[in-house]
Amino acid sequence: MEKTDDYYALTLFDNEGTLKHVIFDIKLRLKKLPSVSGNVTINIINNWTVTGIVDTGATICGITKRMGLNSCGEYDFISATGNNTAPVYIFDVVFPKDKVIEQVEAVEISDDHAFDFLIGMNIISMGDMALTSVNGKAAFSFRMPPAEKYIDFELENC
Q1: Range of 116's domain?
Q2: Which of 109, 150, 98, 142 is nearest to 123 (CA)?
């Protein structure tokens, strides 16, 4: 793949050999609509650093209500418990190395997790993801944009 200014890659290494979940710190940015004060337009931007987890089984991202955001509507979805409706939020996600994905939708998830942001397929499908292991040590890697063809380990000379 030719690298361009739009190319982004992130790799997380598991030096302890205990990688069970892909968890890392990520920034969320909420843009509020501009407000006018006299002749000055003010754009208010809030940033948080949260713990994120990658979940390939989630169609859409999730965020805990601990974040205290105001929802912009509701989202209907199907989960293991059946048909559900949850508040939906829209914000920017700022990955390490300052890669910004704008206007990400996330549904509200319960607060009983060690993370506040669940990265679902609405982000994962924008790129390629791999989990590899060398001498029992795992590494998670993600890149955007995705490759122009499928990665097939069966066809590779490993």
Answers
A1: 21-127
A2: 142
Give the C-alpha distances (Å, rounded to integers) separating 139 from 18, 21, 69, 133.
11, 11, 33, 6
pTM above 0.90, yes or no: no
Q: Which residue in this structure is represented by tokens 């924008």?
A: 126
Q: For residues 50 and 25, is the Cβ–Cβ distance under 8 A? A: yes
CB neighbour class for 106 (10 Å; exposed up to 12, middle 13-18, buried from 19): buried
Residue 56 domain flag: yes
Strand 45-54 relative to strand 23-31, pairing: antiparallel
Buried b (16+ CB within 10 A) or exposed e, 40-53: eeeeeeeebebebb
> How many domains does the chain divide into?
1
Cis peptide before 145 (omega within 30 of 0): yes
Element (H, E) at 124: helix 121-124
**Tens digit of pLDDT for each residue in 99-117?**
888 889 999 998 888 888 8
Among residues 129, 141, 143, the alpha carbon closest in space to that of 56 is found at: 129
User: Does 83 fall in a domain?
Assistant: yes
